[in-house]
Amino acid sequence: MSGIANCLRRRVSDAELSSEEKASLVETLKNKLQALAEQHVDVLESLAPVVRKRVDVLIEIQSQHDELEAKFLEEKSALEAKYHKLYGPLYSKRSEIVSGVLEVEGETEEREEKGVPDFWLKAMKNNEILAEEIHESDEEALKYLKDIKWCRIDDPKGFKFEFFFDTNPFFKNQVLTKIYHMIDEDDEPILEKAIGTEIEWHPGNCLTQEVLTKESLESTKPITKTEEYESFFNFFSPPQVPEDDEKIDENTAEELQNQMERDYDIASTLRDKIIPHAVSWFTGEAVQDEDYGASWVDDEEDDDDEYSDEEA
């Protein structure tokens, strides 16, 4: 999946390593780098002298390209941060209108209904990825959702979501947060872990699980069992990589990676599509745009296939 090279990689901090382990890790890295360097030299030495000169020039060109690319990424990051701040007042005004705090100019008719009811619920349900996560039992709780925000964080590096709710009968939290910790590896952001808010459910209204009890025939003590439910609110309890991940079997590791990739897909959709274009998802306009884009890609592929058949 784009944006995640390997969901199961974990960063090992210096605090977790003894001096002997640090020395061993450094030596291992040195050996790997040395092996790569030797492989690189072997390739160059196998070339004819005239070709070697040309490749040396190509390497210099690549070095210049890499320097420009590094500057581009630095300027891109600064530009994204600049415009994220400029978007802020627009998002705030949108939130005030949606929640009914701010009335639109020209409204004279008195109405009991304030704001735009079910704005975020409808916006998310119109997106294919998020619609799969929202179950019928979630909808009443999501009607209390007033706003969704996200921001970048630097320590640790990553990004954070904030879901703002009106007072509701489902849980006590006014704000539910989720933080994604990212690490850079080969200039590519990799998901290290995600941490969500612990939801304080009101008794009897938990949407993610239920504790069931039944009488035991062999004991006076009742048997309890926790039944897990599918729910959008499981988004705030993301999958975690066990501490001793070396003992995970291949099937479990693959399932865990799929869960983490799915979780990151949801986050990317919220961050890159829903939050910046919420009203377009609410009205359904964004759905039409995505369908048109997908249709255009399919038509292009069909044309390519037809052209290939004619050539054959």
UniProtKB/TrEMBL annotation:
Protein's job: May modulate chromatin structure by regulation of nucleosome assembly/disassembly.
Family from the record: Belongs to the nucleosome assembly protein (NAP) family.
Keywords for the protein's UniProt record, in alphabetical order: Chaperone, Coiled coil, Cytoplasm, Nucleus
Ranges in a coiled coil: 19-46
A GO molecular-function annotation: histone binding
Protein name: Uncharacterized protein
InterPro entries: NAP-like_sf (IPR037231), NAP_family (IPR002164)
One of the GO biological process terms: double-strand break repair via homologous recombination
SUPFAM superfamilies given in the database record: NAP-like
Gene3D superfamilies tied to this protein: 1.20.5.1500, Nucleosome assembly protein
Gene Ontology cellular-component annotations: cytoplasm; nucleus
Region of interest: Disordered: 289-312
Predominant cellular place of this UniProt entry's protein: cytoplasm
Top-level taxon of the source organism: Eukaryota
Intracellular or extracellular location(s): Cytoplasm; Nucleus
A Pfam family of this chain: NAP
